Amino acid sequence: MKPLYKRVILKLSGEALAGDKGFGLDEQTVVDVASQVKELVGMGVEVGVVVGGGNFWRGRSGGGMDRSTADHMGMLATVINSLAMQDAIEGLGLPTRVMSAIEMRQIAEPYIRRRAVRHLEKGRVVIFAAGTGNPYFSTDTTAALRAAEIEAEVILLAKKVDGVYDSDPMVNKSAVKIDALSYIDVLNRGLGVMDSTALTLCMDNNIPILVFGLKETHNIIKVCCGENLGTIIKE
Ligand code: UDP
């Protein structure tokens, strides 16, 4: 297998990192992702990782809380996941840097685009923590933004569900998986794969999104080598 891309953003949803536990981190899943990242880097791919936080907290779970405060909590959740990913990847002997959009210098470097690119060029995995650093955004938007900034060729969107369906497969048992979609289709049909801010950022910058399930081992490698396991979203 040969990778199609030189530089990618791998977006891991918090939910996917929780595995079957549904909350927190599933160690086996984290280690499995780490070993696939190591394999990808070994194949010559530069990998930037954006992790979600939904396995701990989402801004919209805040109920009556102030939204910005609830979102700050969500961004901190992504830092927990980022450190877990760093630990697992470094445990396999691959150097990493966690770069945080919110300064916390005791545990992560501040995000500086040029430095991130330099790390990637040196074969280090860069884990982008704390989302965009702004409330009212998502880690999908972070993935789109960082992909545009570092000129990644594609976003590998790893989820709990294995692609985009015409209706919610968790609710509707006869939901049908869609192989390919345009950005506009996703927006017009209101398919809940990504929020519209993230999607339009990908559309405006022509960044393809490969949606797939994290559950089966080796999926990250397969998708990066051109297998369409889930759904491809592009122009
Ligand atoms: N978040 C934010 N700004 C960002 C990225 C994330 O406020 O730029 C907060 C937001 O509250 C979000 C939470 O962090 O709900 C966790 O991120 P997300 O829901 O995207 O995680 P995922 O669904 O991928 O696990």
Which tags fit this structure?
235 residues; alpha/beta; nine-stranded mixed sheet; two-stranded antiparallel sheet; binds uridine-5'-diphosphate; transferase; pyrimidine biosynthesis; AceGlu_kinase-like_sf; Uridylate kinase
How does this model look, in words?
By secondary structure, this protein is an alpha/beta fold. It has a single domain, classed as Acetylglutamate kinase-like (Carbamate kinase, 3-Layer(aba) Sandwich), CATH 3.40.1160.10. The protein contains 8 helices and 11 strands. The strands form 2 sheets. Strands 4-3-5-2-1-6-10-11-9 form a 9-stranded mixed sheet, sandwiched between helices. The radius of gyration is 16 Å and the shape is globular. The chain starts with 6 loop residues before the first strand and ends with a strand. The model has no long low-confidence stretch (mean pLDDT 96). Residues 13-15, 52-54, 58-59, 71, 74-75, 77-78, 131-132, 134-135, 137-142 line the site of uridine-5'-diphosphate (UDP).
The tally of structural domains comes to 1
What's the average pLDDT? Answer: 96
Helical proportion, percent range: 25-40%
Shape: globular
Strand content: 15-25%
What name is given to the CATH topology?
A: Carbamate kinase
CATH top level is: Alpha Beta
Can you tell me the CATH architecture? 3-Layer(aba) Sandwich
CATH-defined superfamily: Acetylglutamate kinase-like
Give the cofactors and ligands. uridine-5'-diphosphate
Q: How are the strands of the biggest sheet laid out side by side?
A: 4-3-5-2-1-6-10-11-9
